[in-house]
């Protein structure tokens, strides 16, 4: 059996730094021939893990001399970091590849790379090889740390470079990272997933669960804090099983206590928590903490026991509800959010009623509702009783209404309260307002100026607009 250790692979990290130097020489040449700095654009699809991976790609790209741009049309190198959790994510990538092809015709030196979860599927690779010949570089989720090396290969070759690994036991630390936000950051605490929920492709494209060494995690956060970060989001597909396969096993709750000790760090978030192994220890650490945010994302997926079992979720509706009770008793002000799938094979409208019942009883602050998407290779894909679009739509619409009504009711409860908000960005619609995030993850907009970005301020929640507030700073 392979052992998945989490040792920092120092040799690999040194090797990649050499490739960064080598790649810089190619980019410097490109700069000479263009007469300007070459630009790169990384487009991210999917979840927070992918967003964090994109920051790693950008870290390497900027180090070798590219200037980041948000605009694909200005770029000399476009990278799509893809997601395959639902089919619509895949379709969006194929759609946009057509556009990239037209860009490349106008600008032949344009390089195009595809990476991320979608690339771990053989059928996708086959399709790209056949119909998207203009792509220069393809790599997957396991060898992202080799990006600099892969770029060197790309610069040295004319044909399409494909490098996909099925697994890895390597965790390569200390490569450059370019953060999107100055004041907050995601931090990987583990990679992969061992749960194999029967609808889900993530374990197949992200591999087996591997936890990072807690010392590396703490060290990374200390550096982030020294660099101005006040809030971290600890990332893993199931953070509650963190540390189980470390040489010296450590619980997620214990890791949180360690992270909490970091001076200067003000807020800690994490996602995602699988309900099946959320421990009492975690509830206790959270309720004692004044850094861990009052928000728990606790995906239920479905309310019917029969469906939960077919999904391989490892809990029943009642077990989930009593867990929520325990959490709310310990932390009455906590916001609970969830993910729900409608239309899993065999799900009836009666089953959806069970889900609606959970939504009413838990009173979620927010719920992400998804229509089941068949993922090739997962057990659910070969189940016979796939649900008709009509039934799915009916159940989905009914559920969505309850989800929205409940979230609105929950939001309204905060009217008039004064709460701490982290000032995040200028409001998109009205530049005299800033947008802040409360501990419970709700957004509030208030008059302030840009210099306050990254600060924690006390805000009065004056007017509730459904799912968010407008308010003012209390000095
Ligand atoms: N590890 C996380 C979820 C990661 S995927 C967890 O277990 O909670 C994010 C969400 O996508 C899932 O919670 C699920 O609701 C949804 N999802 C995953 N596979 C899906 C599929 N085949 N069809 C529709 N939604 C899916
Ligand atoms: Fe997918 Fe389940 Fe793993 Fe989440 S826990 S990533 S839903 S298999
Ligand atoms: Fe998508 Fe991969 Fe995340 S499939 S949801 S980007 S782990």
Summarize the entry for a quick read.
37% of the residues lie in helices and 20% in strands.
Describe the structure.
- The protein is globular.
- 37% of the residues lie in helices and 20% in strands.
- Helix 3 links the parallel strand 3 and strand 4.
- The N terminus is likely disordered.
- Helix 11 packs parallel to helix 12.
- The strands form 5 sheets. Strands 2-1-3-4-5-6 form a 6-stranded parallel beta sheet, with helices on both faces.
- By secondary structure, the protein is of the alpha/beta class.
- Bound molecules: S-adenosyl-L-homocysteine, iron/sulfur cluster and FE3-S4 cluster.
- S-adenosyl-L-homocysteine binds next to strand 13.
- The site of S-adenosyl-L-homocysteine has 17 residues, from strand 13.
Measure the end-to-end span.
Answer: 59 Å
Structural class comes to alpha/beta
Number of strands: 19
Gyration radius, in Å:
23 Å
Determine the mean pLDDT: 95
Q: Helix amount, in percent?
A: 25-40%
For the largest beta sheet, what order do the strands appear in spatially? 2-1-3-4-5-6
Q: Which sheet architecture does the biggest sheet show?
A: 6 strands, parallel
Strand content: 15-25%
Task: Outline the low-pLDDT stretches.
Answer: 1-6
DSSP summary: helix tally: 13
The distinct bound ligands, ions and cofactors come out as: S-adenosyl-L-homocysteine, iron/sulfur cluster, FE3-S4 cluster
Could you say which overall geometry the principal axes of the C-alpha atoms support?
A: globular
């Amino acid at each position: 059996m392979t052992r998945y250790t989490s040792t920092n692979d120092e040799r690999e990290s040194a090797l990649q730094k050499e490739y960064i130097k080598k790649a810089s020489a190619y980019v410097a040449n490109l700069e000479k021939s263009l007469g300007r700095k070459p630009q790169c654009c990384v487009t991210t699809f999917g979840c927070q893990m992918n967003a964090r991976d994109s920051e790693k790609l950008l870290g390497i790209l900027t180090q070798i001399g590219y200037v980041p741009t948000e605009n694909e049309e200005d770029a000399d190198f476009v990278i799509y970091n893809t997601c395959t959790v639902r089919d619509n994510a895949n379709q969006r990538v194929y759609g946009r590849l057509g556009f990239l092809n037209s860009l490349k015709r106008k600008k032949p030196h344009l390089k195009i790379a595809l990476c991320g979860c979608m690339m771990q599927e053989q059928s996708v690779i086959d399709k790209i090889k056949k119909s998207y010949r203009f792509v220069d570089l393809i790599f997957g989720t396991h060898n992202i740390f080799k990006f600099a090396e892969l770029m060197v290969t790309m610069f040295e070759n004319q044909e399409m470079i494909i490098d996909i690994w099925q697994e890895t036991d390597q965790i390569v630390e200390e490569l450059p990272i370019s953060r999107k936000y100055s004041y907050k950051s995601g931090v990987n605490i583990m990679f992969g997933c061992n749960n194999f929920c029967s609808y889900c492709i993530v374990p197949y494209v992200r591999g087996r669960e591997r936890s990072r060494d807690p010392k590396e995690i703490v060290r990374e956060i200390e550096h982030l804090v020294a660099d101005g970060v006040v809030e971290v989001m600890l990332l893993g597909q199931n953070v509650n099983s963190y540390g189980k396969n470390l040489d010296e096993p450590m619980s997620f709750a214990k890791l949180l206590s360690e992270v909490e000790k970091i001076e200067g760090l003000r807020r800690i978030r994490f996602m995602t928590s699988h309900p099946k192994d959320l421990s009492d220890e975690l509830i206790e650490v959270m309720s004692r903490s004044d850094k861990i945010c009052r928000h728990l994302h606790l995906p239920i997926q479905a309310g019917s026991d029969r469906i939960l079992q077919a999904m391989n979720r490892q809990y029943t509706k009642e077990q989930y509800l009593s867990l929520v009770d325990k959490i709310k008793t310990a932390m009455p002000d906590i916001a609970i959010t969830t993910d729900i799938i409608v239309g899993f094979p065999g799900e009836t409208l009666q089953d959806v009623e069970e889900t609606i019942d959970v939504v009413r009883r838990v009173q979620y602050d927010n719920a992400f509702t998804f229509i089941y998407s068949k993922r090739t290779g997962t057990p659910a894909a070969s189940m016979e009783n796939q649900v008709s679009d009509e039934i799915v739509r009916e159940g989905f619409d009914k559920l969505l209404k309850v989800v929205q009504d409940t979230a609105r009711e929950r939001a309204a409860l905060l009217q008039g309260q004064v709460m701490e908000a982290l000032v995040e960005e200028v409001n998109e619609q009205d530049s005299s307002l800033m947008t802040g995030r409360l501990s419970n993850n709700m957004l509030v907009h208030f008059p302030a100026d840009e210099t306050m970005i990254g600060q924690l301020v006390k805000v009065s929640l004056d007017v509730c607009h459904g799912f968010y507030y407008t308010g003012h700073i209390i000095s």
